[in-house]
Amino acid sequence: MNDAELQKIIDELHIYEKKVLKGLESEGYEATPEEIVKSQNMDIKSVMSAAGILESRGLIKVQKDVQDIISLTDNGKQYAEQGLPERIILKSLNLKNSIPMKEISKETGLNSSEVKIAMGWLVRKKWAVINKGIIEITDEGKNAIGKEANDEQFLTKLLEVQQILFLEPSKILKTGYNLLKQRKGIINVKKDVNYLLIVTDDGEKILKLGVDLTPTATQLTHEQLKTGSWKSLKFRSYDINAEHPETFPGKIHPLTRIIEEIREVFLNMGFTESSGNILESAFWNFDCLFQPQDHAAREMQDTFYIKNPQHSKLPADDLVKRVSDVHENGGTTGSEGWQYDWDREIAKQSVLRTHTTCVSARFLSEKKPPLKMFSVGRVFRRETITYKHLPEFHQVEGIVAAEDINYKNLLGIIEEFYHKLGFKVRFRPAYFPYTYLSTECEIYLPEKESWIELGGSGMFRPEVLEPLGVETPVLAFGLGIERLAMLKLGITDIRMLYKSDIGWLRDLPVTDGIKLK
Q: Order of strands, edge to edge, in the sheet holding 450-460?
């Protein structure tokens, strides 16, 4: 670095960093933090903080030396003086050659916990074997009499010197230490960390150039501005290119953000938002939507039925009667219905709603056209969890009811909705039990040059509307939000939306709207 670059660094240094450099200069370009504390009248925390910054700038090197300081616990002192539990048992075995396991405590005075530990170490050290409940001394055990093992030598040494600074231990001490380290409550190990600060070549150049310890200002006070004393201050320079810590601000979950985006689109299109219960009766979830009671979607493998409460309350009897008649014979609609005996008990069953269309049905039973309503909520189906299916997901539903609406209005509303979300849409014929005409909506993916089905729609059938007392046409549509979210976020596994993958969530941009990948 040239002098100009060095001077720039000097101007950016904090007073504590300058003092640490000056302290190192006075100590011959290397010193411990404690020596800097003493010579510069600083606290150790400030010295270490300044040293870290100086090291990041390449002006000093911080050399760290970690050593183990080992001392005996109270139990360790007792074992060092009286012998390890396995040594006590070995002495008794040397006299009798063998002792029944159940008599060990009586023979040695050791408690059951110490005996259990000692047995393991006796066998491990090959001093004894256990044969049919009897412990017998081995030849290795006899040879060990009167001769300390490595761990015992280490205990004796610790008892003598009180504590050992583990610098370059002998092989015996190291082996003994490793053995004792595997046992609880015998030795204490404390880390002794020492630092040495060493000035680098760039640091020496800066010191030779000259470091001024005159305090520098980093911010102005009201008093300085008022009195004009700021004019005589020396200001500290800032490096606008300095590295900064990476931050991860809080943000709305991407799925929640997309739901809010969908909600905003509908509200801007003049729709009213409604909500309903997650726990619903089969009547509202299936029957009033003209779905027969033997329909495959009602099977246990497709729908979650609730044990408690097992049954839900049905609405007024006249509405129930009209729905029953529509199922059995078409009622007053001119339809033949489904031609079966409708069962009130089946309609009372409690289910986790399988779609949000039940919200639309309730809304139509309570409100009079003209109306525009949408709802967003969780729905539940007995699906196997895969990369594209979940048993619990979100659905958005919408209805429009008025005298002069028709099927073309339905297509126009859906097309406008998808357009506001950034999609090109097309339609193809479909079948749903409660709508006619019916259509499925497909959106175009430019990067794949393909179309993907994203939702269903149609005009509610008379069998749905007449029992609810609605005499105007009603168009309805709905779509799964998670699939839409996958497209907008560019992910191929729906489970990613619920994994709470912190890396993925951090990488998502904080924006007002998520654009299609």
A: 272-273, 371-380, 392-401, 474-480, 450-460, 435-445, 425-429
**How far apart are the C-alpha atoms of 37 and 50, rounded to whole Å?**
12
User: What strands, in cross-sheet order, belong to the sheet with 134-137?
Assistant: 98-100, 134-137, 128-131
| pLDDT for res 514 | 45
| CATH T-level topology, domain 255-507 | BirA Bifunctional Protein; domain 2 (3.30.930)
In angstroms, rounded to a whole number, what is the distance separating the alpha carbons of residues 399 and 374? 6
Mean pLDDT in the chain? 87
- Termini Cα distance of the chain: 46
Which class for 493: exposed (0-12), middle (13-18), buried (19 or more C-beta within 10 A)? exposed
**Cβ atoms 269, 373 nearer than 8 A:** no
CB-based burial, 349-384: b 16+ in 10 Å, e otherwise: bbbbbbbbbbbbbbbbbeeebebbbbbbbebbbeee
CA dist., res. 58 & res. 201, Å (int)? 9
- 278-321: pLDDT as tens digits: 999 999 999 999 999 988 888 877 899 999 999 999 999 999 99
pLDDT tens, residue by residue, 6-20: 888 888 888 898 999
Was domain 74-185 assigned CATH 1.10.10.10?
A: yes
β-bridge partners, 196: 63
Domain ranges of the chain: 3-65+192-222, 74-185, 255-507
Q: Which helix (H) or strand (E) holds 477?
A: strand 474-480
pLDDT of residue 306: 93
Total residue count of the chain as it appears in this document: 517
What is the per-residue pLDDT across 226-263, written as a single tens digit (0 to 9) for each?
898 888 877 777 777 777 778 888 888 999 999 999 99
The CATH code for residues 3-65+192-222 is 1.10.10.10
